[in-house]
Write a structure and sequence with these properties.
With 330 residues, the chain is of the alpha/beta class. 45% of the residues lie in helices and 18% in strands. The strands form 2 sheets. It has a 6-stranded mixed beta sheet. A 5-stranded mixed beta sheet has the order 7-6-8-5-9. α6 links the parallel β6 and β7. The longest helix has 30 residues.
Protein backbone atom coordinates (compact mmCIF):
# COMPACT_ATOMS: atom_id res chain seq x y z
CA UNK A 1 0.00 0.00 0.00
CA UNK A 2 2.84 2.30 0.91
CA UNK A 3 4.48 1.51 -2.40
CA UNK A 4 1.30 2.42 -4.30
CA UNK A 5 1.00 5.72 -2.43
CA UNK A 6 4.60 6.57 -3.16
CA UNK A 7 4.09 5.67 -6.80
CA UNK A 8 0.95 7.83 -6.93
CA UNK A 9 2.69 10.85 -5.43
CA UNK A 10 5.73 10.29 -7.63
CA UNK A 11 3.63 10.26 -10.81
CA UNK A 12 1.56 13.22 -9.61
CA UNK A 13 4.70 15.20 -8.87
CA UNK A 14 6.11 14.41 -12.27
CA UNK A 15 2.90 15.52 -14.00
CA UNK A 16 2.88 18.75 -12.03
CA UNK A 17 6.51 19.35 -12.98
CA UNK A 18 5.79 18.74 -16.66
CA UNK A 19 2.79 21.05 -16.58
CA UNK A 20 4.83 23.75 -14.87
CA UNK A 21 7.66 23.27 -17.37
CA UNK A 22 5.22 23.50 -20.28
CA UNK A 23 3.66 26.65 -18.86
CA UNK A 24 7.15 28.07 -18.36
CA UNK A 25 8.08 27.46 -21.99
CA UNK A 26 4.80 28.98 -23.14
CA UNK A 27 5.41 31.96 -20.90
CA UNK A 28 8.91 32.48 -22.29
CA UNK A 29 7.57 32.36 -25.85
CA UNK A 30 4.81 34.84 -25.00
CA UNK A 31 7.27 37.29 -23.41
CA UNK A 32 9.96 36.83 -26.08
CA UNK A 33 12.22 38.67 -26.51
CA UNK A 34 13.42 39.77 -23.10
CA UNK A 35 17.07 40.38 -24.06
CA UNK A 36 19.19 41.23 -27.14
CA UNK A 37 19.15 38.83 -30.11
CA UNK A 38 22.45 37.86 -31.72
CA UNK A 39 22.22 37.78 -35.53
CA UNK A 40 25.01 35.87 -37.32
CA UNK A 41 26.01 37.00 -40.82
CA UNK A 42 28.21 34.58 -42.75
CA UNK A 43 29.93 37.33 -44.75
CA UNK A 44 32.58 39.83 -43.73
CA UNK A 45 31.74 43.52 -43.09
CA UNK A 46 30.94 45.17 -46.42
CA UNK A 47 29.77 41.93 -48.06
CA UNK A 48 26.37 41.72 -49.75
CA UNK A 49 24.84 39.91 -46.78
CA UNK A 50 26.26 42.42 -44.32
CA UNK A 51 25.10 45.46 -46.33
CA UNK A 52 21.56 44.15 -46.77
CA UNK A 53 21.08 42.65 -43.30
CA UNK A 54 22.13 45.67 -41.21
CA UNK A 55 19.21 47.97 -42.11
CA UNK A 56 16.56 45.28 -41.74
CA UNK A 57 17.87 44.07 -38.38
CA UNK A 58 17.65 47.69 -37.18
CA UNK A 59 13.98 47.72 -38.19
CA UNK A 60 13.54 44.33 -36.52
CA UNK A 61 14.97 45.79 -33.30
CA UNK A 62 12.33 48.49 -33.32
CA UNK A 63 9.48 46.05 -33.98
CA UNK A 64 10.56 43.54 -31.31
CA UNK A 65 11.62 46.15 -28.76
CA UNK A 66 15.05 44.59 -28.15
CA UNK A 67 18.39 45.07 -29.94
CA UNK A 68 19.16 42.71 -32.81
CA UNK A 69 22.96 42.70 -32.97
CA UNK A 70 24.90 41.74 -36.12
CA UNK A 71 27.80 39.35 -35.54
CA UNK A 72 29.99 38.80 -38.62
CA UNK A 73 31.33 35.25 -38.86
CA UNK A 74 32.99 34.82 -42.27
CA UNK A 75 35.03 31.85 -43.37
CA UNK A 76 34.77 28.36 -44.87
CA UNK A 77 32.01 29.44 -47.28
CA UNK A 78 29.74 30.34 -44.40
CA UNK A 79 30.02 26.99 -42.64
CA UNK A 80 31.67 28.52 -39.54
CA UNK A 81 28.66 30.74 -38.87
CA UNK A 82 26.21 27.94 -39.62
CA UNK A 83 27.96 25.41 -37.40
CA UNK A 84 27.92 27.80 -34.44
CA UNK A 85 24.31 28.67 -35.10
CA UNK A 86 23.30 25.02 -35.40
CA UNK A 87 24.84 24.28 -31.98
CA UNK A 88 23.27 27.28 -30.23
CA UNK A 89 20.44 27.05 -27.74
CA UNK A 90 17.12 27.10 -29.68
CA UNK A 91 15.56 29.87 -27.61
CA UNK A 92 15.35 32.52 -30.34
CA UNK A 93 18.30 34.58 -29.13
CA UNK A 94 20.71 33.21 -31.73
CA UNK A 95 19.50 33.47 -35.30
CA UNK A 96 21.18 34.44 -38.55
CA UNK A 97 21.19 34.64 -42.31
CA UNK A 98 22.52 32.27 -44.91
CA UNK A 99 22.61 32.02 -48.66
CA UNK A 100 22.57 28.97 -50.89
CA UNK A 101 25.77 27.85 -49.18
CA UNK A 102 23.51 26.35 -46.53
CA UNK A 103 23.01 23.43 -48.92
CA UNK A 104 25.95 23.81 -51.34
CA UNK A 105 28.41 23.26 -48.47
CA UNK A 106 26.83 19.88 -47.75
CA UNK A 107 26.80 18.99 -51.45
CA UNK A 108 30.57 19.45 -51.65
CA UNK A 109 31.31 17.84 -48.28
CA UNK A 110 32.30 20.97 -46.34
CA UNK A 111 29.45 20.74 -43.84
CA UNK A 112 27.16 17.97 -42.58
CA UNK A 113 24.19 20.37 -42.52
CA UNK A 114 21.78 21.82 -45.03
CA UNK A 115 18.60 23.90 -44.73
CA UNK A 116 16.62 20.90 -43.48
CA UNK A 117 18.86 20.74 -40.39
CA UNK A 118 17.91 24.22 -39.13
CA UNK A 119 14.76 26.02 -38.09
CA UNK A 120 13.75 28.05 -41.13
CA UNK A 121 12.18 31.36 -40.10
CA UNK A 122 11.64 32.86 -43.55
CA UNK A 123 13.20 33.67 -46.91
CA UNK A 124 13.91 37.35 -47.56
CA UNK A 125 15.06 38.13 -51.11
CA UNK A 126 16.99 36.96 -54.15
CA UNK A 127 20.10 38.64 -55.57
CA UNK A 128 21.51 38.34 -59.07
CA UNK A 129 25.21 38.34 -59.98
CA UNK A 130 26.92 41.01 -62.05
CA UNK A 131 29.94 40.74 -64.34
CA UNK A 132 32.63 43.35 -63.69
CA UNK A 133 35.97 44.11 -65.37
CA UNK A 134 39.12 45.69 -64.00
CA UNK A 135 40.28 49.04 -65.35
CA UNK A 136 43.88 48.39 -64.23
CA UNK A 137 44.61 44.84 -65.43
CA UNK A 138 46.66 43.75 -68.47
CA UNK A 139 43.50 43.04 -70.45
CA UNK A 140 40.88 45.79 -70.51
CA UNK A 141 37.35 44.82 -71.51
CA UNK A 142 34.68 47.39 -72.23
CA UNK A 143 31.82 45.06 -73.16
CA UNK A 144 30.72 41.52 -72.37
CA UNK A 145 30.93 40.73 -76.10
CA UNK A 146 34.67 41.54 -76.00
CA UNK A 147 35.06 39.20 -73.04
CA UNK A 148 33.43 36.26 -74.82
CA UNK A 149 35.28 36.88 -78.09
CA UNK A 150 38.68 37.05 -76.39
CA UNK A 151 38.00 34.12 -74.07
CA UNK A 152 37.01 31.88 -76.97
CA UNK A 153 40.22 32.77 -78.82
CA UNK A 154 42.40 32.44 -75.69
CA UNK A 155 41.03 29.65 -73.46
CA UNK A 156 42.10 29.91 -69.83
CA UNK A 157 43.83 33.30 -70.16
CA UNK A 158 41.14 35.65 -68.87
CA UNK A 159 41.20 35.61 -65.07
CA UNK A 160 37.92 35.73 -63.15
CA UNK A 161 37.69 36.43 -59.41
CA UNK A 162 34.88 34.60 -57.67
CA UNK A 163 33.86 33.68 -54.17
CA UNK A 164 35.20 30.37 -52.84
CA UNK A 165 34.80 27.05 -54.65
CA UNK A 166 31.20 25.93 -54.40
CA UNK A 167 30.06 29.34 -53.23
CA UNK A 168 27.27 31.12 -55.11
CA UNK A 169 29.28 33.31 -57.52
CA UNK A 170 31.69 30.47 -58.24
CA UNK A 171 28.60 28.46 -59.22
CA UNK A 172 27.42 31.36 -61.41
CA UNK A 173 30.81 31.45 -63.12
CA UNK A 174 30.69 27.72 -63.86
CA UNK A 175 27.21 28.11 -65.35
CA UNK A 176 28.30 31.17 -67.36
CA UNK A 177 31.32 29.33 -68.80
CA UNK A 178 29.19 26.40 -69.89
CA UNK A 179 26.49 28.57 -71.46
CA UNK A 180 28.98 30.84 -73.28
CA UNK A 181 31.26 27.98 -74.35
CA UNK A 182 34.39 29.56 -72.86
CA UNK A 183 37.03 28.73 -70.26
CA UNK A 184 38.20 31.30 -67.71
CA UNK A 185 41.12 31.18 -65.32
CA UNK A 186 38.87 31.09 -62.26
CA UNK A 187 40.48 32.55 -59.14
CA UNK A 188 38.42 31.80 -55.99
CA UNK A 189 38.94 34.39 -53.25
CA UNK A 190 39.42 33.75 -49.51
CA UNK A 191 36.22 35.64 -48.73
CA UNK A 192 32.95 36.68 -50.26
CA UNK A 193 31.75 39.64 -52.33
CA UNK A 194 33.75 42.43 -50.67
CA UNK A 195 36.99 40.53 -51.32
CA UNK A 196 36.05 39.87 -54.96
CA UNK A 197 35.36 43.57 -55.52
CA UNK A 198 38.73 44.52 -54.02
CA UNK A 199 40.59 41.96 -56.14
CA UNK A 200 39.15 43.26 -59.41
CA UNK A 201 39.56 46.91 -58.38
CA UNK A 202 43.22 46.27 -57.67
CA UNK A 203 43.76 44.76 -61.11
CA UNK A 204 44.66 41.37 -59.66
CA UNK A 205 42.16 39.69 -62.01
CA UNK A 206 40.67 40.77 -65.33
CA UNK A 207 37.07 40.05 -64.37
CA UNK A 208 34.92 39.33 -61.38
CA UNK A 209 31.60 37.63 -60.75
CA UNK A 210 30.01 39.47 -57.87
CA UNK A 211 27.02 41.26 -56.40
CA UNK A 212 26.26 44.93 -56.71
CA UNK A 213 26.14 46.16 -53.10
CA UNK A 214 29.85 45.70 -52.24
CA UNK A 215 30.94 46.67 -55.76
CA UNK A 216 29.07 49.94 -56.19
CA UNK A 217 31.75 52.16 -54.62
CA UNK A 218 34.41 50.66 -56.92
CA UNK A 219 32.19 51.15 -59.97
CA UNK A 220 31.52 54.78 -59.07
CA UNK A 221 35.23 55.37 -58.42
CA UNK A 222 36.10 54.02 -61.89
CA UNK A 223 38.16 51.12 -60.51
CA UNK A 224 35.92 48.50 -62.10
CA UNK A 225 33.61 48.52 -65.10
CA UNK A 226 30.09 47.12 -64.82
CA UNK A 227 29.75 44.98 -67.98
CA UNK A 228 26.49 43.10 -67.59
CA UNK A 229 23.99 41.91 -65.07
CA UNK A 230 22.33 38.55 -64.74
CA UNK A 231 18.62 38.32 -64.06
CA UNK A 232 15.50 39.53 -65.86
CA UNK A 233 15.94 43.30 -65.48
CA UNK A 234 18.61 45.98 -65.58
CA UNK A 235 19.89 47.28 -62.26
CA UNK A 236 17.81 50.26 -61.15
CA UNK A 237 20.90 52.26 -60.16
CA UNK A 238 22.70 51.54 -63.48
CA UNK A 239 19.95 51.50 -66.12
CA UNK A 240 22.51 51.90 -68.92
CA UNK A 241 24.08 48.49 -68.21
CA UNK A 242 22.49 45.70 -70.26
CA UNK A 243 21.36 42.35 -68.97
CA UNK A 244 23.22 39.28 -70.13
CA UNK A 245 20.24 38.31 -72.25
CA UNK A 246 20.15 41.71 -73.94
CA UNK A 247 23.87 41.58 -74.70
CA UNK A 248 24.32 37.94 -75.71
CA UNK A 249 20.83 36.64 -76.33
CA UNK A 250 20.78 34.16 -73.48
CA UNK A 251 20.39 34.06 -69.73
CA UNK A 252 22.17 32.17 -66.96
CA UNK A 253 19.44 31.50 -64.37
CA UNK A 254 21.59 31.57 -61.24
CA UNK A 255 20.74 33.73 -58.25
CA UNK A 256 21.44 33.83 -54.56
CA UNK A 257 18.98 34.34 -51.77
CA UNK A 258 18.88 35.36 -48.14
CA UNK A 259 17.46 32.78 -45.79
CA UNK A 260 16.78 33.54 -42.12
CA UNK A 261 17.38 30.55 -39.86
CA UNK A 262 17.88 29.49 -36.28
CA UNK A 263 19.06 26.36 -34.45
CA UNK A 264 16.97 23.21 -34.88
CA UNK A 265 13.86 22.71 -32.73
CA UNK A 266 13.05 26.35 -31.99
CA UNK A 267 9.62 26.81 -30.33
CA UNK A 268 6.94 27.36 -33.01
CA UNK A 269 5.56 30.38 -31.14
CA UNK A 270 8.93 32.16 -31.31
CA UNK A 271 9.42 31.22 -34.98
CA UNK A 272 5.98 32.64 -35.75
CA UNK A 273 6.71 35.85 -33.85
CA UNK A 274 10.05 36.32 -35.60
CA UNK A 275 8.56 35.54 -39.01
CA UNK A 276 5.78 38.10 -38.61
CA UNK A 277 8.21 40.74 -37.37
CA UNK A 278 10.58 40.02 -40.24
CA UNK A 279 7.79 40.26 -42.81
CA UNK A 280 6.79 43.64 -41.38
CA UNK A 281 10.39 44.91 -41.51
CA UNK A 282 10.96 43.55 -45.03
CA UNK A 283 7.82 45.20 -46.41
CA UNK A 284 9.04 48.67 -45.44
CA UNK A 285 9.22 50.72 -48.69
CA UNK A 286 12.61 52.14 -47.72
CA UNK A 287 14.07 48.66 -47.35
CA UNK A 288 12.46 47.40 -50.57
CA UNK A 289 14.02 50.39 -52.35
CA UNK A 290 17.43 49.46 -50.93
CA UNK A 291 17.10 45.91 -52.25
CA UNK A 292 16.13 47.15 -55.69
CA UNK A 293 19.05 49.58 -55.77
CA UNK A 294 21.45 46.72 -55.10
CA UNK A 295 20.04 44.43 -57.79
CA UNK A 296 18.03 42.29 -55.38
CA UNK A 297 14.36 41.40 -55.51
CA UNK A 298 12.16 41.22 -52.37
CA UNK A 299 10.76 37.69 -52.00
CA UNK A 300 9.40 36.98 -48.56
CA UNK A 301 8.50 33.31 -48.08
CA UNK A 302 7.21 31.64 -44.88
CA UNK A 303 8.98 28.47 -43.67
CA UNK A 304 7.08 25.88 -45.73
CA UNK A 305 7.42 27.80 -49.00
CA UNK A 306 11.06 28.65 -48.25
CA UNK A 307 11.90 24.97 -47.76
CA UNK A 308 10.23 24.04 -51.05
CA UNK A 309 12.11 26.78 -52.92
CA UNK A 310 15.46 25.73 -51.41
CA UNK A 311 14.84 22.08 -52.27
CA UNK A 312 14.35 23.10 -55.91
CA UNK A 313 17.47 25.29 -55.93
CA UNK A 314 19.46 22.50 -54.35
CA UNK A 315 18.79 20.22 -57.31
CA UNK A 316 19.94 22.91 -59.78
CA UNK A 317 23.18 23.35 -57.86
CA UNK A 318 23.66 19.60 -57.56
CA UNK A 319 23.76 19.31 -61.37
CA UNK A 320 26.28 22.15 -61.77
CA UNK A 321 28.54 20.85 -59.01
CA UNK A 322 28.40 17.33 -60.39
CA UNK A 323 29.60 18.58 -63.81
CA UNK A 324 32.36 20.59 -62.10
CA UNK A 325 33.56 17.48 -60.29
CA UNK A 326 33.10 18.78 -56.74
CA UNK A 327 29.89 16.98 -55.77
CA UNK A 328 30.54 14.80 -52.71
CA UNK A 329 27.01 14.04 -51.56
CA UNK A 330 25.54 11.29 -53.73
Amino acid sequence: MVTRQRLFFSISGMLLFLCAFGLGVMGEAAEYPVKPIMFAVEGEPGSQADVLMRPITQKLSTILGKPVIIVNKPGAAGSIALRELHDSKPDGYNIGSSMVTIFSNKLQGISPYDHRDFTVICFNHVSYPILIAATKSKRIFKTVEEVISYAKAHPGEVSMATSGVGYIWWIATMAFQERAGVKFNVVPQPGTSAVVAASVAGGHTDLGMNTLAPTQAQIDAGNVRFLAMFGPKRAASYPEVRTLKEALGYDVPICSGQLIVGPPKMPPEIVDKLGKAWKQAASDPEYESLLTRFNSVPMYLPPDQALKYLDEQREIFRGIMDKAGILKEK
